[in-house]
Design brief:
It is a single chain. With 71 residues, the protein is an alpha+beta fold. Helix content is 23%, strand content 24%. A four-stranded mixed β-sheet has the order 3-2-1-4, covered by helices on one side. The protein is globular. The mean pLDDT is 91.
Length: 71
């Protein structure tokens, strides 16, 4: 899993951000907690929310890990 491309897309009109790992959409995230859970399910069992926020492996599009919209 390390080194696999992770993309978090800009928030959509509902406030969610699509999360893609290695070309596969894993789901819609509404918080860092959601992104972390998707990455755990994708094989990064021990990743923490702090690691998601500071990770250089994530391509945050349309804003960084602090960018979330309230629907």
């Amino acid at each position: 899993m390390r080194g696999v491309p992770v993309v978090v897309y800009p928030p959509d009109e509902s406030g969610g951000r699509r999360v893609r790992v290695d070309g596969e959409i894993l789901g819609m995230a509404y918080s860092i907690r959601d992104v972390t859970e998707f990455l755990r399910r994708a094989g990064l069992d021990d990743i923490t929310e702090d690691e998601v926020i500071g990770s250089g492996m994530i391509d945050w599009r349309g804003g960084g890990p602090e960018t979330w919209r309230t629907p």
